[in-house]
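LAB NOTEBOOK - FOLDING QUEUE
OPERATOR: T.R.
BATCH SIZE: 2
PURPOSE: Compare the predicted structure-token outputs for two unrelated chains run back to back under identical settings.
PRIORITY: normal
REVIEWER: second-year student, initials M.K.

ITEM 1
FIELD SEQUENCE / FIELD STRUCTURE:
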Amino acid sequence: MAMSCALAAAALIFTTAAATATTTAPLPMLPIPTATQLKWQRREVIMFFHFGMNTFTDREWGDGGEDPSLFDPPSLDASQWMTAAAAAGASLAVLVAKHHDGFCLWPSSLTRHSVRASPWRAGRGDVVREFAAAARSAGIDVGIYLSPWDRHDRRYGLEVEYNEYYVSQLRELLTGYGSVSEIWFDGAKGKNAKNMTYHFEEWFQTVRQLQSSINIFSDDGPDLRWVGDENGSAGYTCWSTINRSMITIGQVGIEKYLNLGDPKGTDWVPPECDVSIRQGWFWHKNETAKPLAKLLEIYYNSVGRNCVLLLNVPPNSTGLVDEADIARLREFRAAVDAIFATDLAAGSAATACSVRGEPFAAANVLDGRDDTYWAPKTSKNGYWIELRRPAAMAGEKFNVVRIEEHVALGQRVERHKVFVDGAVVVANGTTVGHKRLHRLAHPVAGETVRVWLATRRGGGAPPLLSAVGLHLDPFAAGMM
């Protein structure tokens, strides 16, 4: 009797162990994002504020010879800027603390070319401080852009002296204004600019030392990369991975590589799409905000292609964001919310080619969570997941298909198709990443929606999908 009990216990232990073995999570497909990169990716829309000497000279690139007395915004209110950011649904706002003209929006101890020499706030003002305080009060995280190209400072062109100056300014900004979530570098430089070697690696390591949880943006990352254009459009194929060793910041000819990413990339450096709500980056009286249709197109081409949208909204010469721009931001956010508020896949029954185990069920793509996902068993012939919509919903038309990978374990999908009711292909594409949005040419209805996927590296790593959704965009062509 005792032996029978022992055998039964052993059998139970073996059975439990076997069951447990089938429910382990799949191995990550390297490289994978850090926690701060994941947090950034889930923001989806963030905001840029270009404000400075160019705001008062009606220029885009100042020459560095501007008189500080020109800087005198009579009504500057950074809290109103945050109203604009909140209107767009942005959870992070990046301020241009110094543009190419070298004028500093904080009273830097390293140069006299700053707000300290201006009449604004009687020379005692600090735009960076007011910006950071207003952002935190509004629950918005802070980002800073410090232009490497400085057309004012006499040290520019002297390699050691200027790099020391630049690092010292970084220290002022990253030690004097609290937590900074993103630091923005670029390689912009005029054709006739002085020859200057930037010590980017020294800058990056200094940033890491001062703010360990920050994301660093540049052509080369190391955390976030430029998407290769300034029109808010990622590549139709868009990998979060690149090889950083193949990139020189500011180099001409790297735009396509940055736009598409690299399926064989060894570094996780997802793209950020920067674009202005107006034609220019700085405020100009004769410019107005892009129409809603254009902003939605930008959204689909950025957020809908595995990117974060960095939307610039420039305050005017009074120190306020134009009310018309804020109204357009509200209109934009309301439209995005209206499109995605209702998931026409809700209530569907999900089936798949296979399932790794119960914790990775096909139904996970419908639960609205980022931390759950469908994981199939390995296959050499591609993978599929199918949603069977409730009979009452089958006639409800949709014109947007949303697919999301569980990118915490890497980016895997290299090709995919979407079928409705069997043979009808309504969408096809390459990469998915954090989010892929297909805006269909015409609304369609159907009982079943199947997503077929092929993964990178010969199908050796199964796709991991966290969401599949169906939506109706009433703002699409032919819908209004």
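ITEM 2
FIELD SEQUENCE / FIELD STRUCTURE:
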Amino acid sequence: MIRNPKERDDIEVGLKVNIVLKKDQRTNKLTQGIVKKLLTNSSYHPHGIKVQLEDGQVGRVKEIL
């Protein structure tokens, strides 16, 4: 199954993902981590679902690894 980083149902706690932090949105620099918490409540977001990683960083999911 292919997971879509823009669909909330495809992202779950414990997944390894690449996110874009707010400060990196212009450069699209990716940060890798494990999802601790989903922060977007809607089922879909065009820029990616916002999550908090286990290390506390917050950003939008760009890739699910």
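REVIEWER COMMENT (ITEM 2): Residues 16 and 33 are 6 Å apart (CA to CA).
FOLLOW-UP: none requested
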